[in-house]
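Please, why this fold?
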Amino acid sequence: MEVLFLGTGAGVPAKLRNVTSIALKLLEERGSVWLFDCGEATQHQILHTTLKPRRVEKIFITHLHGDHIYGLPGFLASRSFQGGELDVTIYGPKGIQTFVETNLSVSQTYLKYRLHFVEVSEGIVFEDEQFLVEARLLEHGIASYGYRVVEKDRPGVLLVDKLKEAGIEPGPVYKKVKNGESVTLKDGTVVDGKKFTGPDIKGRVVTILGDTRFCGAAKELAEGADLLIHEATFAAGEEGLAYEYFHSTTTQAAQIAKAAYVKKLCLTHISSRYDRDDWKMLEGEAKKVFATTEVAYDFKEIEIPLVKSLSQ
């Protein structure tokens, strides 16, 4: 599981930062990529990476301001031209389907794959056997959501040597044991799968927020996350301006991270008023409140390592 920042700026594209788009790479977990927002020129940013558009199976839109969605029609069209044939599901606030379908219709763009739309409201917006995604409404000028991506815990490793010592030979029974099931052998022996697997592998949590003021919903989404990605449009001391424009400061993001006991905070959506020389200053402001803070920049990658195990 890795996060790749394709755009980390606020409002308009700048030389040093493109507008918002974040890729959550789940290549080992499910062979796919999830995009969070798709600002203008996201597909151009992808050209500078190893990311394959055909791998993108889900796109989560936080809100409908242009710097978060203007790149979506172009990306979808190029994905089709580049051989993408698997369906894509787009999650977002009310209006996202109209925006996409109108653009494709007016430009007479034909896709080789089907689009599915999920209009987001608060609660669980996606769940399967591997992942759960929860959305909460934040505080912004228009409906803006944050997403909490939860990887479900996985069964521990199969203790093959221990099984063989117990006289249980390889076969279909191993799969049931791996799932922690109790299995009855031909001789009537009952095998408790939990005794032949290691501790469960704890799933990871990534919280990706849309544009927002300092608010309680952000803390709730971030609770115990391995990584919190929080906007920091303004520097410390600009709380009044941040509130007026429905954004957050570096220290406010850090306060959320501290209160939610996250492992790492990454600041993004940085205003172009702050040039490269200011980035360390912004990071330093947040670190005074929450030490494990980093400032994102375009093409920055963060790996989210597995926790070794859960105690049994």
Residues 137 and 208 are 12 Å apart (CA to CA).
